[in-house]
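Shall we go through a protein fold together, starting from nothing but its sequence? Please make up or recall a protein chain and show it to me in full. Go ahead whenever you are ready, and we will take it from there.
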Amino acid sequence: MSLQINVSSAHGIIQVLHNIKLLSFCCLLLFTTHVPAQSYVPAPVVDKHNLRRIVKVLSEEIGPRSFDQAKGLEAAEKFIRAEFKSLGYSVQRQRYKVYGTDWVENITVSLGPVNAPRLIIGAHYDTFGEQAGADDNASGIAGLLELARLLKPHESRLKIRIDLVAYTLEEPPFFRTELMGSYIHAKSLHDNKVEVIGMIALEMIGFFSHKENSQRFPIGIMRWFYPDKGNFIAVVSNFSGRKFKSAIAGQMKQVGIPVETLSAPPLLAGVDFSDHMNYQRFGYNAVMVTDTAFYRNPHYHQAGDVIHTLDFVAMSEVIRGLCLAVYNLTVIR
């Protein structure tokens, strides 16, 4: 008896092996979360009205803020600088050239010891095309500015320097190019041999749903391990950053918000779809904190991404957990 395998059979065998590999991969992910570390400080009080105010200014009063909507992009940059200054920060502006212009810029403020290792927390302030971008990514900027407010009173206790960065040009057509604001920033750290303990990207943190099957996934088998309701926040890293991811997620869980984690390579669609990607590129530990974007939010890159679709109570809990995590990572060493 001769053994013959036609093309169709071979394809079937490959698919079975692929599914087994995915199953093993997901099982590995399931056990990468560590037990939360003990908290050293009480969770902060987040001002949800301040979060709403910031999102309203960016998404409604300023509106579209892309490279092609230069007036909006510059207005957003000016607003963010003013917000940082009102909190007592000294603002650094990292300008660079794009298509012959030199007006695009990252906005950075710092707190803590000047020459200490750094923790980077960032969010992009541009939008995709002509969209209002309430979740993507006014929510991230609102979280960044609220963290700036909450952390400032504790500056004298910090053992680590914290850099808060608002990035320009994360969205297409600049995504995955060296013109992304986060690429410019990450490269400058690398070129200057700055010691970075980790980077946290705030990427869409305001859309939540308690409806069944409101959460989707890049591969179907992940439904076995994660909730089908989009009522959690996700902390995502590559494999090399999984310990940093677990440290962040472990602290966030202590405030009570549902937190799910994932460590995966870029071949899993979405795991590197934000500014943390550029820090990973230069070898830094980096995570994305996200509501999972298009895997949950039906308004992603659409006109419907407006303020009334956001849950500011849940968003406040995300920031409360993040502030606790950041404080414990930078005060207790």
Notes: The chain has one domain: 7-331.
